[in-house]
Amino acid sequence: MTVFLVSTSSAFFVILYSMDWGAEKSDSWMKAFILSFMGSSCVVDTLQIVVLAVVLSAVCSLPFLTKPPAIRKEDLQLNLWNSAAPKKIRPPTKANCQAARKKRELSKKSASTLLEFLLLLIFVAVLFYIAQTNNDQRAFYETRTLSNTILREFDEIRTPDQFYMWTEEVLLPTLYPSVWYNGRKMKFLDRQFAQNTESFRVGPPRLVQVRRRLGATTWENGAGLGWNRYLQNTSYSCWRFAVPDLLNHPNHTSNCTNHHSLDLPLHHDTAVAFFRSLKDSEFLDKYTKSLAIDINFYNPSLKLFSVVHIVLDHTGVGNLVPKATITSFGLFQYESDADYMNLLIHIIFTLLFSVMIFKEAKAVRNMGWQYFISGWNVLGCLSLVGTATVISVFIKRYTVASDTLALVAKSNGELGFERFVDLTTAAWWDACFAHIMGIVVFINNIALLRVVRFSQTVAKLLALPSIMKNELMSFLVIAAVAFMSFISAAFLIFGSHLESYSDMYRTTFALFEMMLGRFFANDMLEANPLIGPIFFSAFMICIFTLLMNFLMSIICDAISADVDVELDQDLAEHMWNSVCAKFGMHSPPSKEEEPGKTTATPDSS
């Protein structure tokens, strides 16, 4: 009762003081109170106890304060006088020898397993570090900045006139800025930077048009004014773009081919006149299959190159279909101190990879073809093959990056980069390295389960596919038929109204998102007010509610099933007992190891 009254009165006065002080002063008081209480109880009192213990132990251990214990000779030899030595010492029994041999084998096996686990863990950790250092997080912001500036209103292009209007109003002012935001004129070198970005152009942009191939003896009308048919021989003919205003252009390619490339001028006014000439000569006509624009950028502060690939597809439909990709990547390697640290990590990774290959080769030599029967061994081989592929792709990417940097350096003139440099190959190898690295990291993380498969929990988890294979196969057949039915229906109902259902791939992805709980019901209702609600309700009931619950039931039944799994229980118990013994926790011996259970046979002699 006294404690309750004291606590209530203290809390009452604290509330009154907090109302009088205000929120800010009350928070400051509460922080000061908590910090002082924690500092006094956790730091000051602990230090006082430690210092006092050290001082007392130092004082009590002085030579003149210590006395040796007084032990009488009679008490020391009392037990020895009353005991007698055995007449004959017998060897350990057969059961004890088998237990000791088994314990010794388990100790060696556990040490080998622990060493294998540590080696694989270090290998995966180094691989994960290399993957993270290769992935520059700033590339996302660079890509987003270029997308917001260069690709503005690009998705709205449907006709050639809209394309030429977009180039004149958005693309050219962004690529060739002339004034700052305050109206001041830019210097020549500043004009190479794209508008509102920190990236400058590496060479002029390039236009590449792919045209439909003509027949050898038939002439089809309706081509643009600047396009002529060139008959190379009796069996092959091609297009030639011949415009008087563009023939004097030094970068104009007029070879007989169905792929035509043009490099844009380096100045804004000349580029505007260049596109107007293309428009007047009908550069885009009904025989155009696709038109691509490649633009290269470099951000000095981030040391990242970017490739902007703009495509207008004219195949299959009457309108132009705009597509664009922006890829940011690095070409400079081993320049700063951090890069040389990464070089050291690469060398360590190569050494670890050599050790892993030697270990697996030794296992294959000892076991022969029996080694490949186990699925875990096959997974280990796939991991090594993938790692070797990563190393090979890394070397190829490094050589391609070096060659590309040499080409970029050659294209640099007195007034900036004057020639177009194709960075597509370097970007492709960088993306290839990133994708393969992701797959290899995933495989190696799964391979970690290979070492700890003796655990009962892990063994039960790995045995789930075999436990529920019959029910799962039946479920997958039914789910595949139902899902394909909904995909076909969604593509036919919403394909002409919603972009996310415009083709089978996007429809599959959209319905998979709906199955996971992410959907946009309003768009479906607006696209088809009559069939949309029926389709949405049927999908949510059949797929999201029924089939997903069926799958969860199958998994839960498999987890709760009482089945025998293959695991080394003795090894797991031995490793657990060893770990507990390291921390001073000893478990009672098993019945097989109790010394009193087995008795030695009497000597017949």
Explain what this protein looks like in three dimensions.
The protein is α+β, with helices and mostly antiparallel strands. It has 3 domains: 108-136 and 336-451; 138-329, no CATH class; 464-560, Helix Hairpins (Orthogonal Bundle), CATH 1.10.287. It has 19 helices and 10 strands. Strands 1, 2, 5, 6, 7 and 8 form a 6-stranded antiparallel β-sheet that branches. Strands 3-4 form a two-stranded antiparallel sheet. Strand 7 and strand 8 (321-329) form a beta hairpin. Helix 5 packs antiparallel against helix 12 (424-447), helix 7 runs antiparallel to helix 9 and helix 15 packs across helix 16 (504-515).
Give me a quick take on this structure:
Helix content is 57%, strand content 10%.
Keywords:
605 residues; alpha+beta; Helix Hairpins; two-stranded antiparallel ribbon; 19 helices; 10 strands; disordered C terminus
Largest sheet: 6 strands, antiparallel
Kindly report the average pLDDT value.
Answer: 78
Sequence of secondary-structure elements = HHHHHHHEEEEHEHEEEHHEEHHHHHHHH
Number of helical elements: 19
